[in-house]
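Usage

Read records sequentially. Each one opens with the input sequence:
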Amino acid sequence: MIIDALLNPDKEAHFMTFETSDQDIHNAVMDAQAAQENTDINGGDDDKDDDTAPPVWPSHCQALQAVTTLQSFIGAMDEPYARKLESLWA
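and closes with the structure output:
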């Protein structure tokens, strides 16, 4: 097998019908980066094949334990903002 046929298979030859300069490659990369950075502005990512795991939310029990811990911590403080937080959590 010729090395050129290995590096440039016939089924991919139609992609190389024109000469690509370094500037063309740079522009394509910069355009792709700008598009990725602006996905929220442009309507977000609607990829249905998104394989990321959904966020794991704490259980009710874990949330109540956290509030109890914070109430104990704030209760030991002698600051005006601590009293405001206590009144919000009561």
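Summary fields computed downstream for this record:
- The CA atoms of residues 33 and 55 lie 26 Å apart.
- Helices lie at 3-7, 22-37, 60-75, 80-89.
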